[in-house]
């Protein structure tokens, strides 16, 4: 079952969850929040994403997230925490982002380096979306 979090949940309030509702578990159909496609007119930034699909999450600030709303080939990998500075109330995560063509291959490779196993799923893409993927992407996974 897919899980979703807001940018606020991931980066500032990891102990809260705006997206989750227990009613989602009362049905046999997975809950998918509404989304729209990103237009790729400019490079996406973390601030552009309202909802992330959680691909992997663990303690210590480790996580892999895919942009859901808007939907794009944009991924955020968090690799731990920066130390708390004096007077600061919360830690900040160490963040890496991957965007555009072959971003999913780069994220898969980075996850392997971090000891994270990501599931691979085949997804249908329309011809006009194929510029984001090349033939090497799926064969190298």
Characterise this structure.
It is a single chain. The protein has 141 residues and is an alpha+beta fold. It has one domain. Helices cover 16% and strands 26% of the residues. The chain is built from 3 helices and 5 strands. Strands 1-2-3-4-5 form a 5-stranded antiparallel beta sheet. The chain is globular, with a radius of gyration of 16 Å. It starts with a strand and ends with a helix.
Keywords:
3 helices; 141 residues
Q: Name the structural class.
A: alpha+beta
Q: Could you spell the SSE succession in H and E letters?
A: EHEEEEHH
The figure for the number of domains is 1
Q: What percent of the residues sit in helical stretches (DSSP H or I)? A: 10-25%
Number of strands: 5
Distance between the termini: 22 Å
Radius of gyration: 16 Å
Largest sheet: 5 strands, antiparallel
Give the assembly state of these chains. Answer: single chain
Q: Strand sequence of the main sheet, in spatial order?
A: 1-2-3-4-5
- What amount of the residues lies in strands? 25-35%
Ranges with pLDDT <50 over ≥5 residues? Answer: 137-141
Figure out the total of helices. Answer: 3
- The whole-number mean of residue pLDDT values reads 83
Q: What does the overall shape look like?
A: globular
